[in-house]
Amino acid sequence: AQELLEQGEIEGAQALLEVVKENTSKAEKKSQARTWALPFSVKLAELQVDEARAALDMAKLELAVVELELAKAIIAAPFDGIIADVYIDEGQQLSAMTYSSPAIYLVDPSNVEMSGEIDEIDISKVKLGQEAIITLIALPDKKVKGKVTFISPTGKVWEDEVSYKITITLGNPDEELKDGMSASAEIITNRRDNVLLIPNRAIQGSLENPWVEVVTDDETEKRQVTLGLSNGIYSEVLSGLKEGEKVVLPVT
């Protein structure tokens, strides 16, 4: 009986050994399979990441295109102001190729520009930044100061006369000045302070030899004078007259 028991134990141990060997073999095969599959799994994951990155880049590109198209569809005001007129209708489709007119008319009432023309004889005296005094027909008692901000480099010929366009920028804090008002401007091309002035009507003779009639006691005398600046109404006297002397104004 003891021998049969020992023989049974041996056979059981051998069977268990075979099971262990079989399980070990299966485990080795699975391990080997996982070892071979791992590089393929990593490669597949890398491809999926590349595809995701490509899709993201494409989405960013499409977003940029949409944002660009949206920016083109927005009409942004170049400055703060008031919409004075609208030239398009709601729902109207516009194209730069087919529509060249402005969409809106925007004005800034706090800053006004006056456009005018200067004769070719005087244009050389006008410089950027020079001060100007503006008089308006609608507001004759109001004087508005401005500055020359533009001088056209090319002249315009009209009836054999050449003129140059200029722009004067002036402030409008109380917004009394309105678009389209008629005005005239005096541009200060030079300035003299504390000088002796006489009316241009009193000046006689020629540009080379100007003279005036000066009242002395009960008579008058002809006197040569040297002139300086003139604003078209008054002229500066550099020599030939003294302050307080009276001159004759010819009757016209």
What letter string, H or E per element, gives the SSE order? HEEEEEEEEEEEEEEE
Counted by DSSP, the helix tally is 1
DSSP strand tally: 15
DSSP strand (E) fraction? Answer: 25-35%
CATH topology of the largest domain: Elongation Factor Tu (Ef-tu), domain 3
The name of the CATH architecture of the largest domain is: Beta Barrel
Q: Which homologous superfamily in CATH is the superfamily of the largest domain?
A: Efflux pump adaptor protein, beta barrel domain
Total discrete domains = 4
Q: Mean pLDDT, as a whole number?
A: 80
What distance lies between the first and last C-alpha atoms, to the nearest angstrom?
A: 167 Å
Highest CATH level, the class of the largest domain: Mainly Beta
Largest sheet: 6 strands, antiparallel
| Low-confidence regions | 1-10
Descriptive account of the structure:
The radius of gyration is 48 Å and the shape is elongated. The termini are far apart. Strands 3, 4, 5, 6, 7 and 8 form a six-stranded antiparallel beta sheet that branches. The model is unreliable at 1-10 (pLDDT under 50). Helices cover 29% and strands 33% of the residues. The protein is an alpha+beta fold and 252 residues long. The protein is built from one helix and 15 strands. The chain folds into four domains: 1-74; 77-108, no CATH class; 111-187, Elongation Factor Tu (Ef-tu), domain 3 (Beta Barrel); 197-247, conserved putative lor/sdh protein from methanococcus maripaludis s2 fold (Beta Barrel), CATH 2.40.420. Its main location: other. InterPro entries: Beta-barrel_YknX (IPR058636), MdtA-like_C (IPR058627), RND_pump_MFP (IPR006143), UPF0194_transport (IPR050465).
